[in-house]
Structure formats: structure tokens, C-alpha cells
Amino acid sequence: MRALLVVLATAFALLVPAGPASAGTAPDYAEFPYAPTTYSEPFRGQFHFSSQSGWMNDPNGLVFANGLYHFFYQHNPHGLEWDTMHWGHATSPDLVHWTQKPIALEPGVHPGTLFSGGGIVDRFNTSGLKTGALDPIVVFSNTNGVSVFYSNDNGRSFQAYDGGRKQIEIPEESRDPNVVWDADRRQWVMVVWSNRGGNGVDIYTSPDLLQWTFASRYAADWLFECPDLFVLPLDGRPQWVLTSATSEYVVGTFDGKTFRTDRPQPKKMNLGTTYPGGTFYAAESFDNTPDGRVVQMAWQGGNRGDSWTGNATFPVALGLVGSPDGPKITRTPVAELDSLRADTRTWRNTAVTATNNPFAGILADTYEITARFDLRGATAQEFGFALHSRSDGTADRTVTYNRAAGTLYGRPFQPTGDEVSVRLLVDRGQLEVFSGDGLFSVADNVNFDSAAVSQGIRLFANGGQVRLKDAKFTRLSTSWGTAQSTLESNLQGPWHATAGSWTDVAGGKRAQAPGDSFYLSASTAGDATYQGDLRLDTAQAAGLTFRATPEGAGYTANIDAAGVVKLWRPGRDIASYSTPIAQGQTYHLTVRTTGSRIQVWLNHGTSPIIDATDTAYSSGRFGANVYRGTATVQNLNTGPSGFAAFASGPWTAVGGTWTATPDSLRANASGDAFYLSDRTASDLVYEGDLSVVNGVAAGLTFRAGADGAGYTANIDASGAVKLWRPGRDIATFSTPIVQGRTYHLKVQATGSRIQVWLDRGTSPVIDAVDTTYGAGRVGLNVYAGTAAVRQLTIS
Fold first, then answer.
1. Residue from 58, 83, 427, 672 carrying the catalytic annotation
2. Is 437 considered catalytic here?
């Protein structure tokens, strides 16, 4: 969306405590400045998505990828007004239960103007960008041209393709690229709003998402900003639908190059206030839905609180029906809403008058109402629902059908035969009204008063009576709190804390407690392999808890600032291992339980440092523990580690943060950092898989001292494979190194001769001589950014 939103946003000048908008750097990525929230504030939607804090506007790049729905959106995480645009990110397993994730695209890390755009899932790897088991998510942004960004770790990080260079150059004002798959011609199609003498979209095609060819232009005065292009069936035949930010749309055909319609006058799919900052704007549909549905969400700018501005409409499934006026879109809330349903009440064949309110006695905050009214014999001039009503007759909002005016909720409405149906979704700051099998929809923002005295519902009829055919009231529970924002884990939620406070930070989950505090998942097991990363900030100890009760009573393996790794349970220290433990450094613990046997490994060592027996607890929950102070935990996972390496004792970090995910060892540093095994060698063959996720370089270190000083062969995102030692670049080989792509490096050191191979090539790309270091430790290096490492071997 264009920068004029700055003007529209000046009314919301309060800032989130994180401070003014700023750009990040690769070592800081991904930015996560959000203050804690329970999502229970006044006017905060309980089943409508809103950003944990900060400003949000247009939905961007909505996709279903690798088992999750991803909702990206225009976002200023630092304030409640439009400013320096980021791409926010949230995920959901079901379109209902959303979890805030760290920033997806961040100024200073990702180049270009990060305005609105689209996204797809490259399931068939047409782009060749895939580097692993997960399907790439590819998104498009920038202004006056289009840049490509992609993720191979399911949205955890994004890289800029070709350094962010615009793959499409558009000399006129342009923005908001949107991409769809053209199955008939097996090509990708992009529409980009541009001002080539007026409103309209430029249409491009591509076989691979990277090389684009201009195909045609569709010009229309109504077609301003944030276009969406998708296919919907009508009577078994696919129809192409082109929409604008204002919810206007036309239905037509696409021949692989040109969009055409024989009904160029647009229709509106939603009758909310369809302008920037209104109640329905910039809607976008999901790519790659597992059941083929076209699911849509839009921006509602009228909702705000003390820490957030804006929310999204509830997801709807789109359809097409025929009419004398041509095909029309229907919008129906997704069936996954059922997962929130609590108690339900129903009515049938009931007369509604000014004094007979079937809903009397019901108090509710967030709920759904469906109702059908019979117009035959109706004498009431108007009837409907007064929502969040009070004993004095006032209400926060009324949804009325006016027979004489022919309006529903103040909008023109044509009943279906002799029946008026309504479906209301009532949230704390949102109201959505549907009727006519989805042909009629209105998205609105309403500041509902959640006080108990204001939670009444009044079904009324004025000037006569009307017969209620049937109605259903269903209370809707909150959708928040079922997953973790920054704690990477394969354990199931909901999680709960037994004491202290556990908050989201960029590095995982941070705990603060005066004594023992546990953070426990819903996952339970007896025999298992469980592991995670632990860092003491000010705490005395932090650990992995397993086989625990809901109160935390079970086993804990911890790191303790007194200089031990300890296995304990309430009332007994079972075993300990003496080793220096430094505050501010991350340690990896692995626990394996087999019956009464409990083994503990430290920092990816080959042999357990604790091997003990205890029979007190046979099964229970997985979680984490902190004792007396502040600590951070991350990557709490059952199953094997993603760091497969040669046999070694515990590894040692020299700078940076080194953590283990299920697919790799991850490193993050602002300068040079090393991760060193206790293996030493002189002559060796050493190889592994490396990726510069964001930033500059990652490499294999060998013949190194305890401080990392030795030789390093690395891949450098500036475009080189380099062999270096402190004070000297020994040799370089120029070659493109793409952020996010995995490269295989092999080093052979024989005396003073050092050779380096890239991607299993038959000939070394570097063959050099240096005599500075004759022997030393084997390890890893990262420089100024984030790297991923896999499959290390020595021979």
C-alpha cells in the first residue's frame, strides 16, 4: 500500500514501548519487539487476528505451506501508526488459532520498499530455490518494480533473491504484486497495480517465478491498489476473478496472456467501509490451500487498543453463483470456526414482538447468531438484534432489517423469497454480518463493552410482529494461546507456567522467577529423547524437565552457574557433572530415558556425561525449568537433533549463539564466532553442509586454538569461497553464494597444502600453501549474520 497511509494514520500517534521505527541488521533478524499480552484487552478480537502489538494493514502473501497457514501483513512493529513498513507474520494450523511469529521481512535486512505483495508455495520447485525437505515460500514486494524473497524453513527466515534486484522494472508508479498458478498453461501469472495513465494492472507470466515476461494490461478506473487474481468454479467451469483493494471485482476469462470480461462494471463483495483504514480493505486469498478452497482475509483498520492498531477479517471461503446480473461472489465463514464453539441454544417457530425477546437472559461477549425470519404475515416495520444491550434499552450496535427501506444493517438487501436470514459473528471489536448464502456481507469494527451489564442480546420487532423460523446462539471461545511465538518446539500446547513469568523474546522463551519455575507443555511420554538450548542470564540454573506432573514435579536436567550439570527430582540430586557454566552462553542438553535409566549429554558430545537410574517417575510432561533469576530456553524438541557431526566431546562456543533445531545447527553472531569440538587434527579431510541464512559468511574451521584462531574455509555471500586465517585471506574463489541455499564444502589439509572443494566438484576450487598452523581443533565459524550447518564428517 502506498505511503499516503501516513496521513490516514496520524490519529493513532501513540507508540508501543519498543520505541520509534528503525531498520535492523542481519544479526538482529528476525526482529521481535512485542510486549507480552494475554490478548484479553478491551476491544481485542478473540477470534479475529490482530498483531500482538504495533500497526497492521494489508494482508500479504497468504499461503498454506508445510502444514501451516501463513498470514503475512504490512506492519510497523514499533508504533501504532503507519511507518517504516515490515512484513509481519503469524501462523495457524486451522485458520482460527493464530500465533504471532517474528518479523518476516525487515528493513535493513531485506532490500527494497517492503510494501504490500503476494506469495505462493513453490510445490514443484519451478524456481529451483528449494534447499531441503520443505516447500519454498516465495513472496513478492517492492514498488515501481518487483523483487523476490523466499524461505526454505517455512517462513522462519527469508532471503532476497538476486540480492533484492528488481526482477520486473516498471518505470511508472506501481506496487502490490500478486501471483497465481495458471494450471491450464502450467505457468505463473502476476498482476501488479500500476499507474500507466490511470488505474489498472500489468499482467506478467513466468515459468519459474524468477524470469517474468510482460503479457498485457487490464485498465479500469475502479482497479486501484492491492489486486488479487484467483480462479473459482461456476457450474463446474473455472472462472477468473480480478479484485481490487476496495472489494470491487469482475469475473472473466484468461487465455494465458490477457484477462477479459464481458461485464466490466464491477460488483462489491463486501459492503463495509472499503477505504484505507476502513473496515474492509486490501483483501487477499490464500495460495495452496489443502482442500482447494479459495479463502480470503482483509484488513480492518478501525480496530485499536493501547498496544495495537488494526485487525483482519475472519477467514471466509469464496464461491461463485450465477445471477441475471452475471456471476457473483459468495463469502462464507470457514467451517473451522466450529473449533471455538461452546454452549449452544436454539429456537424454532417463535413470534417476535416489541415485548417478546427470545434471547432474554443470555449474557455473552463473543458469539455467533444464525436466524431465519418468515416475511409471510409479518407486520413489523423492522426487526433484528440489539447486540451488547443493557437494561436501560441501549446497545452497542443494532443489526436491523427494514422492510420499507429494503435494507439490512443499513445496506440495500434483497430477501430470498419470503425469508430473511442473518448470520452474525460478534467479537470484542468486530462485527461481521452475512446473509443470502454469502451474497451479502458486511465487515465492521465496533467497540463492544464487555462488562457483564452490557452483554445482553435483544431480538426485537418494531411496529408489529415477525415469525422467527429458527435461530441458534453459540458462544465462541478465544482462539489465542495454543502455540508458541518464538519458542521453537515440536511439543504440543497449550503450555502453562507454574510460577514466575515466561515471555517471548527473539531468542526463545525467557523466564524470570525468584525460586523454581516450570513451563510445561501438554505433551507427555515415558521413554523418549528430549533436548533443548539453555542460557543463564542472571539465573542460578535452567534445565529440561520431563516425566513431570502439571505442577512440575518430575525430573530436571539443568545447567547450574555453580559449575555443574545436574539431574534432579524433588527431594534428591540424582547425579551431577562438574564443568564450567558461564552466564550469557547457550548450552545444549540432550536427555534420553529408557525405563529407569536416564542419560544426559552436553553440547553434542558423543558420550553421556550423566548415566543414572531412578524409579520415582515413569511418565509425564515435557517442559523447562528456571531457578532464581532470568534464563532463556529454545528449541525444546523430542527426537533426534539436526546437528549430525563426527564423534566428539562437548563442543565449546567462542562468541555468538549456537542452537540446535531439528534440521540443523544454527549460529548467530554480529562478528566472528566459532564453535569448536574437542577433536584435534593436523592432516585431515573435513566436510559439511553450510548455509548463510542471512548475513555474510559461514565456514569450516580447523587447526584452531581454543580461541578459534586457525584456518577457516567459508562461503561468503559477497560471492566467494574463501580460505583465511587471522590477518590474511590466503585464497579466494569467486562464485555466486545465495543466502539461504545450502553448499557443501570439503577441506583437505596435508602438511602445508590446503585444498577446498565446493559442492562435491571433482577439482578443488582452492589449492594453497600456508605454514602458520600445523595442528589444532576442528569446528565451525559464522560471521556477521545467521548460518545453518549440517552433516559434518572427518576422515
1. 58
2. no
